[in-house]
Each structure stands twice: as structure tokens, then as C-alpha cells.
UniProtKB/TrEMBL annotation:
Protein name: Energy-coupling factor transport system ATP-binding protein
Annotated SMART domains: AAA
Keywords, comma-separated and alphabetical: ATP-binding, Cell membrane, Membrane, Nucleotide-binding, Translocase, Transport
GO MF annotation: an example: ATPase-coupled transmembrane transporter activity
Native source species: Glycomyces sambucus
Amino acid sequence: MTVDAIVFEHVTFAYGAPPSGATGVRGIGGHSADSGPAVHRPVLDDVSFTLPEGEFCLLVGPTGAGKSTLLKAVNGLVPRFTGGDMHGRVTVAGRDVRGATPADLADVVGYVGQDPLAGFVTDEVELELAYTAEQLGVAPAAMRKRVTEIVDLLGLADVRDRALAQLSSGQRQRVAIGAALVAGPTALVLDEPTSALDPTAADEVLSALHRLVHDLGITVLLAEHRLERVVQYADSALLLDGGRCTAGPLGEILARSPVAPPVVGLGRLAGWPGPPVTIREARRHAAPLRKILAERAGTVARGTDIPSAAQAGPPLLEARGLTVDYPGVRAVAGVDLAAARGERIALMGRNGSGKSSLLWALQGTGKRSGGTVAIGGADPAARRPGERRTLAGLVPADAADLLYAETVAAECAGADEDGRAPKGTCAKILDDLVEGVDPGVHPRDLSEGQRLALALAVTLTAAPPLLLLDEPTRGLDYPGKAALAARLGTLAGAGHCVVVSTHDVEFCAEFASRVVVLSDGEVVADGPARQITAASPMFAPQVEKILPGWMTVAEVEAALESGDD
Ligand SMILES: Nc1ncnc2c1ncn2[C@@H]1O[C@H](COP(=O)(O)OP(=O)(O)OP(=O)(O)O)[C@@H](O)[C@H]1O
Ligand SMILES: Nc1ncnc2c1ncn2[C@@H]1O[C@H](COP(=O)(O)OP(=O)(O)OP(=O)(O)O)[C@@H](O)[C@H]1O
């Protein structure tokens, strides 16, 4: 008989009311106590669903829909540590979550947040894995056996003795999953576990989760924006939109979802039945469309084919022999990079290949151990911070680093003033990226995607000639990413040079004219986006895999429309 792993019965939740849990416990970003008793619009509105044992379920929904909130309600973090007003019932493996702490529930549900480092309590892999078991009072012999099983299951044998700080991001994420598994839970909930990972590391993590579902019958509930990465692993989906939640088989949910991967968009455009949700299914329908496109390929200008401006003008940015050393690591190893106004460059490469270090060194704030950087002839490192900002703007991977004001509205007003932009510029950019952000809310209470959009809007308002963005698509839904690509395209068209470090191949396909690939701090490929991404199974976007030579749904749509004229 199958047991229901996670059950929500008429769950309604709104932020704003005082915390209902124990006092003296550090909250998870909630500040309801000092913001008064005002209750906001419900984030979850009469949510009911049942997830059986051994199911891999995706939680999908637009930016700020409440996905993190729903996941935290599974193990009681919401409302216990966030405050808020909650009605209805959540049960995991038959246990009522109300009144229990996440630690009480560790043997039925494991929670893995977006940033594994933030959740670690020790310094070493094995200690971290053993920690939860120790807390639960498991006998040493049983504990060693359990840790070994988890190490094998998650492919961590080679690194089990290492310090956590020496692990790659994908390995750290697998350790975080392992730590959540030690207590032997029925269910695992994961909040965008691959958002910071390169495509290879993401595949490793998702394959490990897939094995847990198949070998151990664990139920996995996983929130993710990059659906193209995860659909092939999932059985079912929950769609959260406007507070309401719909559950169903993956294909059915994606067919009606406002957020769907490119393959679904292509299927809708081409009228393929289903529509297909995997590349494999889509290829079965693709032959007639390939034929039509082959006839049009010569006559249609594709967006990303716009010639590189590098050939047109003198470079805005010129770096020579740029080197960044940390103790024991050469993060950037003699990089030469020239970029002109109008270029849209994606910086790609494995986790730890040196992308962030390169961006910060180019901007002038980061460490530079050797080499030169010039932006419009000036060395940004030699300028004062205020002046530096007029040469280059950098949106950091952790968007919160850029935000200081008490409300979204104040942040936007400050950005308009600092950037000498007309009033309302920043708010308008924000609204284009993510709709409906409450201007009165504190930036720390925004969802991940909303906060990132705000940091982007603040930087784009000042619009310096060189724009550097470090992983700017975390937490953004597909419409948000398309809006970001469009805005960056407009800025490039107006003479800015835009460099984006990203693991998001679909965003790269929409945005980039040129791709630079780093490996171990060195540039190993540099050329037109279409050429570089098509040549690599790791970097190729979904559309390219189904219709070689075509990168995005919009491109295919334009080609089909051109034939209708
Ligand atoms: N502590 C809080 N106080 C007030 N409002 C909050 C708080 N935390 C989140 N919110 C709001 O609740 C809504 C849902 O946030 P949540 O983080 O659950 O969304 P999400 O779907 O996970 O978003 P993303 O896709 O960006 O990760 C957002 O509008 C957010 O601004
Ligand atoms: N402050 C630091 N001190 C020591 N080593 C560092 C520091 N910052 C980065 N490193 C190391 O330098 C190398 C490059 O890191 P960097 O963050 O630039 O890579 P990345 O390509 O941006 O990675 P990711 O895709 O994971 O964000 C890695 O080996 C990293 O561990």
C-alpha cells in the first residue's frame, strides 16, 4: 500500500502576522514582528494536494508566486520562523507539521535551501553528514553505516575526507542533500537546488535525486525555474500561480502553465500534440518543421546573427594578461579580452572556472594580481568608487549586496537620483522584469527573483557604458528572463557593452552575440554565440537540439511568420 508522503489540506497563508512559534529563535528573513500586525494578501490560497511516496514532483510558478513559502510550509519553517497567518493542515508521512520544529521533523522531511553553505554547521564532509544523525542519537556503528551508504548513493566517496570549503558547488549541493537524508526522511524538499550550478554539476545533482526516488522510494518536491533542466526527471508537477495550486501529471501541468520550458513553447507554436516536454519526444515531431525552416534559413535574419560590434569600433574594454591569484589558486590566468560598445557577451564555464573573479577584476573593485584593464582608456582600479561606477556597473551574484534602502520604492527613487535618470525609470525597469512587486515591502522580504530584479533595475537605471552581470537569472521566470534579454539588447543597441556570466544556456541563446568560455582561469573559446553553443552538447539550447541551426522559439516563430507574408 502506498503511503501519502506530503498532504496539504486547504492551506492558506499570508505574511504579516506575528510569529506563532517559540520566541528566541532566529527567523528566516521574516521581520513581521517589527512591521506590525498588517496581514498581506495570501501567498497560498486554499492549497490542497497529495504527493504519494516515491514521486518526483516539480513545483513551478512565476517569480514571487510563493514556491519557497510552500516548501518551507512542508517542514514548518513557515509560519514558525517567518511569522504569518496560516490556516489548514500540512501532514508529512502522516505527521501533522503544526507545532513541530524542522528538527522534530528531520526524520520525515529533509529541507535543502538554495545556498548549501548557509545551512552547513561543520567544516568537513563526513562531519556534516554525521551531524544530524548525532543530533538524533543514532549509535556510532549505525551512523557510520548510514554515512557510508549516503556517500555511495550521492557519489561523494572521493571527497568524503575533504573540507567543505574545498568542494565544487555541485559537490557542496550533494553534501547538503546527503545531510538532509541522514535521518532517513520520507520526503525531501529542495528550493532551486541547481540554480548556482553549471550544467554538468546540475545534471549530477539531479541524477542523484532521481536515484533516491527510484532506489529508496523517497518523495522529492523540487522548486525550479530552469525547467529545461529538470523535466526529464520528474513524474508530476504542482503549478502555483496567484496563490492557487494545481496538481497533475507533468505534461498536463506544463501544457497550461504560464511558465514552461522552450521545448513546450516550440511544441505550442508548431501545434505538436501534447505538447512534448522532452527533447526526445519533440524530435519525433520535428521533421516537417525542419524541412520548412531549411527552405527559409537563407532568407531570414536571425537575432543573434547581428554582426559583432567588435569589428566595427575601437574596444571600450581592453584587458591584457589579467591575472587574479588567491592563496593556492590562480583563479584568472592571463586573460586577454577586448570588447566594443554594442556587444552582448556571455561568459560561460564550469563552477570555479574564474568568471566572478574576472568580472570583479574588470570592474576594478576585485583583486588583480597582474595585467592591465582599461575601460574607455581609464583604469577602473585607479579611480575612486564614485567615478568607477560611471565606467562600469556590476550586478553581483548576491543581489542583496547592492540594496540598502528600507523599501523597494526608496531603493528605486535613490537609483533614479544616483543615475540622474527621470523619476520612475527604475520602477519601470523593475516592473518590466517582474510584475507586481509591492513598493512598500522591505528588500530583504522579497522573493529571490524579485530581489535580483530590483538589483538589476538599480544598476540598469544608471546605465554605465560597461555593464557586468554575475549570474543574473537566478529566480527569474521565463518572461522575466526574456524581458532582461530584451532590455540588455536595447542597452547594447544604444552603445553599451554588456558582459553576463551565466550557466543558463537558454538565457545565453536569447541574449548573447558572443560567447567567451573560461576553464581554469583561461579563455578556451571565444566567438559568435551560435557557433560556440551549437558545437557543445552542454551549452546547446533546447531548440538547437531539436532544430539544428535555430536557437530560440522566437527565432523559429519569426521564420514561420516571414513565410506567411
Ligand atoms: N518574510 C516576508 N514578509 C513579507 N513578504 C514576504 C516574505 N517572504 C516572502 N514574501 C513575499 O511573498 C511572496 C512569495 O515569496 P516566495 O519567496 O515564496 O516566492 P517564490 O515563488 O519562491 O519566488 P522566486 O521564484 O523568486 O524564488 C513574494 O511576493 C514575496 O515578496
Ligand atoms: N576570495 C577567495 N579566496 C580564495 N579562493 C577564491 C576566492 N574567490 C574565489 N576563489 C577560488 O577561485 C576560483 C575561481 O572562482 P570564481 O568564483 O571566480 O569562479 P566562477 O567561475 O565564478 O564560479 P561559479 O560558477 O561557481 O560562480 C575557484 O577555485 C574559487 O574556489
